[in-house]
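Document type: protein sequence-to-structure record

Subject area: structural biology

Format: plain text, a pair of labelled lines:
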Amino acid sequence: MTNVHAATDVTAEIRAYIVDRFLFGKGDGLSNSASFMEQHLVDSTGILEVVMFLESKYGIKVADEELIPENLDSIDRIAAFVRRKQA
Protein backbone atom coordinates (compact mmCIF):
# COMPACT_ATOMS: atom_id res chain seq x y z
CA MET A 1 0.00 0.00 0.00
CA THR A 2 1.36 3.40 -0.92
CA ASN A 3 1.34 6.39 1.40
CA VAL A 4 -1.41 8.01 -0.69
CA HIS A 5 -3.62 4.95 -0.22
CA ALA A 6 -2.75 4.75 3.48
CA ALA A 7 -3.64 8.43 3.92
CA THR A 8 -6.90 7.94 2.04
CA ASP A 9 -7.74 4.86 4.09
CA VAL A 10 -7.12 6.64 7.41
CA THR A 11 -9.28 9.58 6.33
CA ALA A 12 -12.05 7.27 5.06
CA GLU A 13 -12.00 5.18 8.25
CA ILE A 14 -12.17 8.24 10.48
CA ARG A 15 -14.95 9.75 8.36
CA ALA A 16 -16.94 6.52 8.54
CA TYR A 17 -16.58 6.45 12.33
CA ILE A 18 -17.67 10.10 12.74
CA VAL A 19 -20.61 9.72 10.37
CA ASP A 20 -21.78 6.45 11.95
CA ARG A 21 -21.27 7.50 15.57
CA PHE A 22 -22.28 11.16 15.57
CA LEU A 23 -24.39 11.70 12.44
CA PHE A 24 -26.23 8.36 12.46
CA GLY A 25 -25.05 7.54 8.95
CA LYS A 26 -26.14 10.86 7.43
CA GLY A 27 -22.86 12.51 6.46
CA ASP A 28 -23.69 13.69 2.96
CA GLY A 29 -23.27 17.39 3.79
CA LEU A 30 -20.17 16.99 5.96
CA SER A 31 -16.88 18.08 4.45
CA ASN A 32 -13.69 16.52 5.81
CA SER A 33 -12.45 19.99 6.75
CA ALA A 34 -15.59 21.04 8.69
CA SER A 35 -14.90 22.08 12.28
CA PHE A 36 -16.69 19.83 14.76
CA MET A 37 -16.93 22.74 17.22
CA GLU A 38 -18.29 25.25 14.70
CA GLN A 39 -20.80 22.72 13.37
CA HIS A 40 -21.72 21.51 16.89
CA LEU A 41 -21.14 17.93 15.77
CA VAL A 42 -18.91 16.49 18.49
CA ASP A 43 -18.84 17.68 22.09
CA SER A 44 -16.07 17.16 24.64
CA THR A 45 -17.38 13.73 25.64
CA GLY A 46 -17.56 12.80 21.97
CA ILE A 47 -13.93 13.81 21.48
CA LEU A 48 -12.97 11.38 24.24
CA GLU A 49 -14.87 8.66 22.36
CA VAL A 50 -12.98 9.60 19.19
CA VAL A 51 -9.69 9.38 21.09
CA MET A 52 -10.57 5.90 22.40
CA PHE A 53 -11.40 4.85 18.82
CA LEU A 54 -8.10 6.23 17.51
CA GLU A 55 -6.06 4.54 20.23
CA SER A 56 -7.81 1.21 19.65
CA LYS A 57 -7.90 1.32 15.84
CA TYR A 58 -4.44 2.73 15.15
CA GLY A 59 -2.46 1.63 18.20
CA ILE A 60 -1.47 5.16 19.14
CA LYS A 61 -1.50 6.92 22.50
CA VAL A 62 -3.03 10.40 22.67
CA ALA A 63 -1.46 12.48 25.44
CA ASP A 64 -3.52 15.02 27.39
CA GLU A 65 -1.59 17.90 25.83
CA GLU A 66 -2.55 16.61 22.36
CA LEU A 67 -6.27 17.01 23.09
CA ILE A 68 -6.46 20.30 21.20
CA PRO A 69 -8.55 21.50 18.25
CA GLU A 70 -5.50 21.62 15.98
CA ASN A 71 -5.37 17.81 16.26
CA LEU A 72 -9.00 16.79 16.71
CA ASP A 73 -11.44 19.38 15.31
CA SER A 74 -12.14 17.90 11.87
CA ILE A 75 -11.79 14.68 9.95
CA ASP A 76 -8.81 16.08 8.04
CA ARG A 77 -7.09 17.25 11.24
CA ILE A 78 -7.63 13.90 12.95
CA ALA A 79 -6.31 11.98 9.94
CA ALA A 80 -3.20 14.18 9.78
CA PHE A 81 -2.69 13.74 13.53
CA VAL A 82 -2.93 9.94 13.24
CA ARG A 83 -0.43 9.92 10.36
CA ARG A 84 2.01 12.05 12.41
CA LYS A 85 1.64 9.71 15.39
CA GLN A 86 2.26 6.65 13.21
CA ALA A 87 5.34 8.15 11.54
About this structure: The chain has a mean pLDDT of 92. Residues 12 and 75 are 9 Å apart (CA to CA). Residues 3-22 form the longest helix (20 residues). The radius of gyration is 12 Å.
